[in-house]
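A favour, since you know our structure tokens better than I do. It will help me judge whether the discrete encoding reads sensibly. The space below this message is yours for that.
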Amino acid sequence: MPVVTVDWWKGNDRQKRADLVDELTSTLARIAGCPREAVTVLVRDVEQDHWGRGGLLADEPGEAPTDSEEPPQRARSVLTESR
């Protein structure tokens, strides 16, 4: 029974959650070789003031790191090894 948990910022509507659950369920069922009914998806909405990245809370003004920044050395080596 695969279980996946998604944490994302609060504010996504019900339809987006439904679409996410449907897509994740289909993908997990296909990869795990199990029926859709065996897949559980938990979607947790997180307030921006409960989400930190780069040493800052997401609701604070400031320069938070972008996804285009280079990962730390250890992360680069792990990513390279897994390819």
